[in-house]
Prior knowledge:
- With about 130 residues, the protein is of the alpha+beta class.
- The protein is built from 2 helices and 6 strands, in the order αβαβββββ.
- The chain folds into 2 domains: about 5-90, no CATH class; about 90-125, no CATH class.
- The strands form 2 sheets. Strands 1-4-3-2 form a 4-stranded mixed sheet, with helices on one face.
- A hairpin with a 7-residue loop joins strand 5 and strand 6.
Amino acid sequence: MNENQEIIDQCRAFADFLERNDGLAKVDDVEFEAYYFFSEDAKGKIAALARAGMNDVSVEKVEKDYGSSYFYLRFNGDFSFKAVTQREKVCTKREVGTETVTERQLPEGVEYVDVEVERPVYEWDCDPLLAS
Length: 132
């Protein structure tokens, strides 16, 4: 049995719902999302998804986005799909220095004051997914 059978059945049930209710307003788009927040091998699973998408005739484009605290893998083509996990599951955080920034702080019993503080600066090393 396919490990994704429950998801497959839910997709078919949604398609059946739309067919049974043809009087509904047109749905502009549906994007399927998969979350890998608790997966031990999120990087390997997302790499396998990327390979499958790159080799599937119904997928025109596979895009990766490391820009936030999350990592997104997007498929576009005959359907839209997005896989999401925390960036640290697929990238390595590396401290590269510090920076001085001004923060507004509230000392006890006093008005807000602006204080310069040092905080670490990080970069992320994100190896190519398909190398994993």
